[in-house]
Specification:
CATH superfamily of the largest domain: Bira Bifunctional Protein, Domain 2
Mean pLDDT: 91
Low-confidence stretches: none
Number of domains: 2
CATH class of the largest domain: Alpha Beta
Oligomer: single chain
Number of helices: 6
Structural class: alpha+beta
CATH topology of the largest domain: BirA Bifunctional Protein, domain 2
Number of strands: 12
Strand order of the largest sheet: 1-2-3-7-6-5-4
Order of helices and strands: HEHEEHEEEEHHHEEEEE
Helix content: 25-40%
């Protein structure tokens, strides 16, 4: 990231007149950017606030997994949305699509989405998303958190207990990336999608699903899932932003699996 003292001013200047990223706070180190974002949720003036950190000491991912980060290597970002007409599942898809598109246009990477919340490049995890929902002051509020591996070298991941093999933009492109510029690119794409959901939610849902399908690493593949302490196998047929991943089971039955209670065991 550009000199950390200048970072919020550079992003706010680039995002002047915009909602998402129009206000920015940056920390050298914090436990979790999501937790910081929630501290602002009681004031609607902070709708669209972007919280960034150079390092997280207690970053979390899905199902309480830790998000590993060292100073200066990652984008650690949370966006606060207050009183927004969108559900958590759709916001997760939207954030994933925005991240994949930003990585493609800004870094030239072919990024794919591994349901429900991982961004992969060449089969390795480059980014992860965690969307949280709470009611604050009678309003539905969301925090969309994302961690993007930017400038790590292979040795950065040595000794890490990773659920999925990891990579970084630097590893994939051979060059370091300016994290501030990439944050601005991501925030711009995210706002474009969120504006669509405000203008016409049903149409936006269809557009997001179609883009997710183009970027999905699972669509059409044979997968095995764990749900409610049982294992299910079948072919991924699509996504429903409310009900979850649509799978045609080996019995022929088609059903949806909600992200919050399902784990992907493997994809073939």
């Amino acid at each position: 990231m550009t000199k950390i003292g200048d970072c919020p001013y550079l992003i706010e200047a680039a995002r002047k007149g915009c909602v998402v990223g129009g206000k920015v706070v940056v920390f050298r180190s914090t436990g979790s950017t999501n937790d910081i974002a929630w501290a602002y949720a009681g004031n609607s003036a902070y709708h669209g606030l972007c919280v960034l950190a150079d390092q997280q000491t207690a970053g979390r991912g899905r199902r309480g997994r830790l998000w590993y980060s060292r100073p200066g290597e990652s984008i650690l970002c949370s966006v606060l949305l207050i009183d927004t007409p969108i559900e958590a599942e759709l916001l997760t898809l939207t954030t994933a699509v925005a991240a994949a598109e930003a990585l493609s246009t800004f870094c030239g990477l072919h990024a794919g989405i591994k349901w429900p919340n991982d961004i992969l490049v060449n089969g390795k995890k480059l980014a992860g998303i965690l969307v949280e929902r709470r009611r604050v002051g009678g309003r539905a509020c969301f925090v969309a958190g994302i961690g993007i591996n930017c400038n790590q070298l292979p040795e950065s991941f040595a000794g890490c207990d990773l659920h999925t093999p990891a990579t970084s933009i630097r590893i994939e492109t051979g060059a370091p990336v300016d994290r501030t510029d990439l944050v601005c690119a991501f925030l711009a794409v995210l706002e474009q999608w969120l504006t669509k959901t405000t203008d016409d939610l049903n149409r936006a849902k269809n557009d997001i699903i179609n883009h997710w399908a183009q970027l999905s690493t699972l669509l059409g593949r044979h997968i095995t899932l764990e749900f409610d302490n049982q294992t299910y196998s079948g072919y991924c047929r699509g996504i429903d932003p409310t009900d979850g991943l649509i799978v045609q089971l080996e019995s022929g039955t088609v059903r949806a699996f909600a992200a919050h209670s399902t784990s992907l065991v493997r994809a073939e």
